[in-house]
Amino acid sequence: MADNEFDNAQTPVGGPTTGDGNAPQAGVLAQYVKDLSFENPNAPASMQNSANAKPAIDVNVNVGVRKMNEEMYEVDLKISAKAENVGENGERQVAFVAELSYGTLFGIRNVQEETMKPFLLVQAPTMMFPFARRIIADATRDGGFPPLLLEPINFDALFQQQQAQEAAGAAPAGGNGDEPAPINLN
What we know:
About 25% of the residues lie in helices and about 35% in strands. The longest helix has 30 residues, at about 115-140. It is α+β, with helices and mostly antiparallel strands.
């Protein structure tokens, strides 16, 4: 009978601890949509024009971090996408606007201060991005357009670029020092 019993003890993220209780630990506590907006302001005209024209799509991404308590941080991945069709007369018409604020609570314990920022601004949004990407794709598809499939984002390269700008003494465009600057993917 003992061979069929299960051990219900949970193993922390990153494997079992070494027993000293000081091993670094990080884990996802919750994921959620904070805000989701889809607008099709020129329907049904935008639907008729979309069949024979490829829209210009402007995508922006921003990562924000908020400390909830000593061991919990909220990472907010914001994605906005705006598609515009250009008419025969050169006039631009908005096809759709999709905006998502996707939040994740991370529990973090025994992580060095110098590795905290890269974790929260690189690894965390990298883990979150596939979920946010799917939400944007579903929203655009459900809005009557082909799904907007965002290309993967190299958050590490963007973080390194921001660090280089800060080291050179230049504040990132649009950033206030505490919050990273928006990332334009065009």
